[in-house]
Amino acid sequence: MSTAATPAASGGLSKKDFASDQEVRWCPGCGDYAILSAVQRVLPELGIPREKIVFISGIGCSSRFPYYMNTYGFHTIHGRAPAIATGLKLANPELTVFVVTGDGDGLSIGGNHLMHVLRRNVDLTILLFNNRIYGLTKGQYSPTSEQGKVTKSTPYGSIDRPLDPVRVALGAGASFVARTIDRNLPHLQETLRRAVAHRGTSFVEIYQNCNIYNDGAFAPLTDKETREAAVVELVHGRPLVFGRPGERRALRLRGLVPEVVPYAEGSTSGAEGGGADGGLWVHDEHDRRLALLLAELEPPAMPVPMGVLLDLEAPEFIAAHMEQERRVTQTQGPGDLERLLRGPETWTVRES
Amino acid sequence: MSTAATPAASGGLSKKDFASDQEVRWCPGCGDYAILSAVQRVLPELGIPREKIVFISGIGCSSRFPYYMNTYGFHTIHGRAPAIATGLKLANPELTVFVVTGDGDGLSIGGNHLMHVLRRNVDLTILLFNNRIYGLTKGQYSPTSEQGKVTKSTPYGSIDRPLDPVRVALGAGASFVARTIDRNLPHLQETLRRAVAHRGTSFVEIYQNCNIYNDGAFAPLTDKETREAAVVELVHGRPLVFGRPGERRALRLRGLVPEVVPYAEGSTSGAEGGGADGGLWVHDEHDRRLALLLAELEPPAMPVPMGVLLDLEAPEFIAAHMEQERRVTQTQGPGDLERLLRGPETWTVRES
Amino acid sequence: MTTSTSPGASSSRGERTPLVSAVVRFAGDSGDGMQLTGSQFAHEVAWAGNDLATLPTFPAEIRAPAGTLYGVSSFQIQFGSVRVLTPGDRLDALVAMNPAALKVHLGDLEPGGLLIVNRNAFDQRNLARAGYRDNPLEDPALAERYRLHAIEVSRLTHEAVAGLGLGHKDAERCKNFFCLGLVSWVYGRPIEPTIEWLQRRFAREPALLEANRRALLAGHAFAETAEIFGEAYRVEPAVLPPGTYRRISGNQALALGLVTAAVRAGRPLLYGSYPITPASDILHEMARHRNFGVRPFQAEDEIAAMGAAIGAAFGGAIGVCGTSGPGLALKAEGLGLAVMAELPVVVIDVQRGGPSTGLPTRTEQADLLQALYGRNSEAPLIVLAPATPGECFQMAYEAVRLALKYMVPAILLSDGYLANGSEPWRIPDPEELPPIEVQQPPAAAAGRFAPYARDERTLARPWAVPGMPGLEHRIGGLEKEHISGNVSYDPDNHDLMVRLREEKVRRAAAEIPPLEVQGEDAGQLLVVGWGSTYGAIRVAVERVRARGRAVSAVHLRYLNPLPPDLGPLLGRFRRVLVPEINRGQLRRVLRAEFGCDAVGFHRVRGMPLAVGEIEQAIEALLDGEAGA
Amino acid sequence: MTTSTSPGASSSRGERTPLVSAVVRFAGDSGDGMQLTGSQFAHEVAWAGNDLATLPTFPAEIRAPAGTLYGVSSFQIQFGSVRVLTPGDRLDALVAMNPAALKVHLGDLEPGGLLIVNRNAFDQRNLARAGYRDNPLEDPALAERYRLHAIEVSRLTHEAVAGLGLGHKDAERCKNFFCLGLVSWVYGRPIEPTIEWLQRRFAREPALLEANRRALLAGHAFAETAEIFGEAYRVEPAVLPPGTYRRISGNQALALGLVTAAVRAGRPLLYGSYPITPASDILHEMARHRNFGVRPFQAEDEIAAMGAAIGAAFGGAIGVCGTSGPGLALKAEGLGLAVMAELPVVVIDVQRGGPSTGLPTRTEQADLLQALYGRNSEAPLIVLAPATPGECFQMAYEAVRLALKYMVPAILLSDGYLANGSEPWRIPDPEELPPIEVQQPPAAAAGRFAPYARDERTLARPWAVPGMPGLEHRIGGLEKEHISGNVSYDPDNHDLMVRLREEKVRRAAAEIPPLEVQGEDAGQLLVVGWGSTYGAIRVAVERVRARGRAVSAVHLRYLNPLPPDLGPLLGRFRRVLVPEINRGQLRRVLRAEFGCDAVGFHRVRGMPLAVGEIEQAIEALLDGEAGA
Ligand SMILES: Cc1ncc(C[n+]2csc(CCOP(=O)(O)OP(=O)(O)O)c2C)c(N)n1
Ligand SMILES: Cc1ncc(C[n+]2csc(CCOP(=O)(O)OP(=O)(O)O)c2C)c(N)n1
Ligand code: SF4
Ligand code: SF4
Ligand SMILES: [Mg+2]
Ligand SMILES: [Mg+2]
Known about the structure:
Chain A is α/β, with parallel strands linked by helices. In chain A, 31% of the residues lie in helices and 18% in strands. Chain A has a domain at 7-217: Thiamin diphosphate (ThDP)-binding fold, Pyr/PP domains (Rossmann fold). In chain A, the strands form 2 sheets. In chain A, strands 2-1-3-4-6-5-11-7 form an 8-stranded mixed sheet, with helices on both faces. In chain A, a hairpin with a 6-residue loop joins strand 8 (241-242) and strand 9 (249-254). In chain A, helix 2 crosses helix 7 (185-197). Chain C is α/β, with parallel strands linked by helices.
């Protein structure tokens, strides 16, 4: 999402300027708190005046987010936030618009709007809080829940195979795809900055712990013991390195098949070509094919990629829309209501 | 989709047994006729009794398909056929169910149901007639129309970037993904056979010419002059070869980047490893990563892949559902209504 | 045709029989160009200064196979020197281009009516396709019952265009202009406007221009010289209020009304729509007017279109979306949000035959109750309905005006007949339209901004939109606290808010002009209509009144809130008849609202009501029979 | 507790004051276990043979922060030796676990009522969170106005469980059982069932079992021995019809009704649902009964759930889906298809506060008009509504029965109060339920099968489903030809089909049992209710009658078609009052349908109507005042 930055106007805003007067009502310990805090920290950096920032959400625990932001906000209906945000942005292209959604809101009932906003590449930042559960309705499995999950609605285990939000986004042609996690604040903040900086739809999947209905869903990715081996942080132009100090590993592509190989700190052997064979797999966030393969990495055999998987320049919907408006207005002149109403053919009836 | 074949019952059925008594009402010259004919030809081969075959469609020119099939059929509402077919299959897992949809029906209003049926891997065959236009509503651009398309609803050209149905299907985790075209009858028929043979959701994109509102959309792929260079037909275990006799070409992967190289008939140099570097790109329909890269091939620089892009074994939804039903019934015994109604705690009030 | 006074017919008027009005229908294969023929004839008629009303009927198929019954396309027009309010019940003249057209439409032709057929099309194949065993033209009964003229239209057309180097197909396609020339002569309508139109249309295809021109002239000359028509007619110009006129369809007028509202309000207008018959043409029209600040958005479905309109309204633009019945069903949840958020969105429902997919190409007025009640819980909004194609303009404008003034969603109920039908339309001066008031928020909120503080008079909340500094606030679909707009679960607050939302809509009744009663404003029988049945009811009432019987009529353009003077008016009549193309939806509302024992008249045939059947229903009631 | 005759209370009954009924509310933080406490108390009460009705109220938040006003959770129960039909308007006793609970609920306690508070929770932090500047327990007015007992519940509980090795948190969590013991003693209800329950619940956690048991006994003993309670009560068993009983909530009963219908019909039942408050528990319950042929399907949204139900019905299974108001809005288009395809699907709408997202955790009955009319065009279907939690069983069964018999969709309107409320339920013998008729198609079609040929009596079409040889056919959402079912654009056929679909629903009126009138069946005033207001209306009418005034009442369980004897009944009363938790929806229907000048009483507070306010409304009308 491009930033309509007017630094002067927002000079000196701080985190607390972005906190509304409403008491935050998530469960104590919910991962949503960390995300809220990260967003409230990052916003003052952007230099965008508060009145130009809008948070649009659907329904779910995650979707209560706008109430806590001292910006404009709209807590809409289940799954429709991308469509509403598109309309808002078309009404006023100057705005910086965030969409906050959940794995149910964004991928279950709202999957189609998500897909279409991504293909249109509307200049929005979409934050999908993925806790792999329906929180607000008290714990049914979601489209990102693992197969076999026992929940209130699946006492004998769920049957559906889960969706991977990142794969869905790539399949829809997203121009910016990233993944981050509630428990890694610096990573979360940096990912938010990158998302806001992107022009077009920025899709950010945020792994979020629902400590009431799906506690520990991402524990391997956050537990001190395991997290370094379980996560690979993506850095553009750098090899995919992960693992604890002393046990550092890197990824290599054999053909299209990823392999884990030992990694000696500082080594970049053969790291020139993005994903080039022989050498290590080097991250290139502008390469859609590499992003597709990153999205295929599945735990536990492979580490989970975190960070910006893809950042492509692509025509943005709102700008193109306004450009067309300008072009037509230039060619045809500003609308002449009288002429429009008369149409091509008229006749006159005189007083008789 | 698995075939609940009972060859005896359907012995001797022929194409015309599958034609209903309703006059076909597509525009003269419409590509839908060829698809209808192909389906009516393939069905008798399957040995499935007519009464076990059901066609479910949404709304659109394409969706009138069921009326012309002498099987069970249901022309439902716009975009919802996958959901309705899922319910039908759950009601009676014995049935062979086809879903017929269009690029508008399946990817615009019905995109979410399509995505979810694919992830669930419900045993259905989905035929998506992609004519890159809304036919029935008389010619508005569709989600698969090329950017800049001038239509009734976009007099100054469309702004949205198109979706690629195959990429969407792969993004949703489809287990079977194929592409074929109305004008290549043998290919169409063979693809249908493969789709029906697959267990799980078979997704078949069929390029279909709408000669009224989008005539020639696929002309390069069907014109005698150009088609051989424009299409690569996929054959499992064979290199990706295309081009006219005498000008045969093959594809090779350089890292993840496809290249076109000359091909000498019969050559299979280095063709062992699926997509292996050095040698030619050899099709492996069981390799999801290769399928992802196939879906990235874009004309005119690259030929359009036709055939089965992906055919994976994956847990099928209906079978798993019925298996759970059996398992629970086995463990708990068949439902005992009296016990159920009594619940865990009762008390008795006697005549006083 | 440019501005000019109506010159009357161009042919000699010598022995022409004067007519007050006539009903003509052109019918043929979808490939025969009947819509164009009818439309051009309507142009000629309008140019001649007649009043008119048109009724096109399309097959459901895009291009139905030639010669089939279901592939017949037709265009009906009534025109006259008097006010013409309906396309007419029965035909004075029928042009049938093939056997199928004859079979489908003959039943509507008045005995003794003029019947023109293309004899060349009555070959074995076409007869078989239409299900004729024998050629009906050879049945003497046909010529006895009607003034039959079986003309070799195809052959004569081919002869007329011979030598222009046209292929057979192109030559054949000119035969509709032959017929147009012929009918124009019969009714003494000027063909100049058509020639002008051809010149514009085929500016770059001189051969086609010439061919069609020749066919037109040939038909005209054929009628004049062959003298096979026993009589020729003339229809004097109608006495219409002075002004500059154009012919306009309901969908066109609706789009222009929206554009005008946007210009007058000084706001961009987002038109979000997912194509659906018969509303798609509004999208097509809106998409052309980008230089008026119209932002067209073809959404992925109706829910997204609704969402985009809500988002636009939240953002300070006018949010409009257009659809038909099934699409309105999908917008229900979104409309509820707009009611709760109190945002000004306008939803246009061009009603069609239902339920479900129903009869997509046919008209009906059975979405009234859906518009009023088709949402969860108490979610009142404004509902309006235009009465004629031209009126779609002012009611679309009115819908935007009221939505913005009361900060409330509005639904506009058009229908398939209004959408595609057309009439002469006096071009309005936009400046004469009532101004559009926008609920400006306080310049800067002293302290915390209260998004649900209300205007005392209208109860509207302020339209504070993103971008306005100091007014940052959050709204949503949860119940909100009076004034502060914060989420509130307080029971009494909920009851209050439910009442306020209702009261706000009720207050919009202050905007409704006094009802205009046709006839006495008290008496035996009042006929109440809404929407596109206006013309048929009006004419029926006129006719019954002309027979000296006391009956009055009133037409509702405001369905929610209802006009404040409606209740008293109903009370002044002994009986009330409500003719509708549904099973009695307005009737239900009137009974519930006013305890009025209204009787219904319902024909749900996918067609406009006929004047004659309404007349009968009126007479029956006056004679003391129960309602049908 | 297993089957047993009700043993009455276990404590000594010596000096206990007899009560006919009592209303008790437990209130505290969501973490305080108030729902469990209330539910266990209800078990004890049921076991003691009382009649009862319960009203749980949850905060909208999943785990609201401790001590907040919006985080208070409560459970109210009325029980008695007489028939108990409502959870009661005002409280005889309130247990408040913290300052927030006191603040939120004190207003509902009768002056002089019993007020038990956990004094330990009244610390600075909690007082501040609840917005108390001073400790209300220190205000002498409190003890003057109520029978206040500020007990150190936390401390006493910790002491009771000391030595079991529990952490502070676990120990603290036992305090609800202390309160339960205490209240059980006060009302003389047996604690044995609770001990049995604890034994089952904590079979694998002996420390927790012991701790909760000790807390329970400590509370019980405290009340008995500390003798701080001025009085103790007893409530004799109610005289209920003989039979075996259980306590059941509306959602449970509904699920069991569906399962029973499936078993009786011998068909699998697809339950398609997308989770939504307050309907989710039905999905949870249905998902457990796989061994009854229930096929649960958690769909991607409500539209897909509806679609799956339609697909299942097309496939010969019973297609059911459950949702709440916003979800019903999304099912509108699908319901239209089911009407057109004439397929037996059942949609359950557990109504909640609206519009839009509204008040998701609160009750309302404002979806009646949506259920009746919330679809495009004329799309009539059956609408039913249970009156009590237990009745959800039979009405769910009835919905399936009628849908299958008439081949038509049915909507069942439950609500948040019925869903979560509970009552003693006499377990029915499934064999006594009316049999479920399935519209079997002809064994083999002679010639072409006619999917729209109808049963003469019911007008139902045959249920020919895929898999049946020789009956292959195609249906869809386009209008269909009478009998053949082919697509038809014929105007008269459309009118006929519209009427047939309407008539079919009308014929289902033959299934409706005669109305049972409370009081005389003619007179001054008839109160008409539907849905969950049953109990409140009944009690209100009883009370007014007890004061010797003439008022009758009737309750509607069939909303479409309406009972055939309703019109005549309405006609026998001078005035009709319709109390509803909406703005007058049934009232509107009655006025429209019967021209009856019904007066409404509406309180839309997200809460059940109170008996008292209905009484007042009745009295006011009897006194000749206008309706409120
Ligand atoms: C139309 C509609 N259907 C269903 C619901 C109920 N509902 C509210 S939130 C939700 C799912 C929330 O899951 P998710 O998006 O993952 O958010 P989370 O609570 O986990 O943050 C559902 C089903 C609703 N509010 N509206
Ligand atoms: C709810 C709803 N919205 C819109 C329509 C109108 N409609 C019918 S078909 C169609 C699009 C058809 O496009 P596609 O699926 O590509 O089918 P095609 O006609 O091209 O085969 C639309 C928008 C409808 N019938 N129902
Ligand atoms: S239920 Fe889960 S996601 Fe929702 S607020 Fe609680 S912890 Fe967070
Ligand atoms: S409009 Fe196009 S897709 Fe539809 S029937 Fe005609 S040619 Fe085929
Ligand atoms: Mg979630
Ligand atoms: Mg299409």
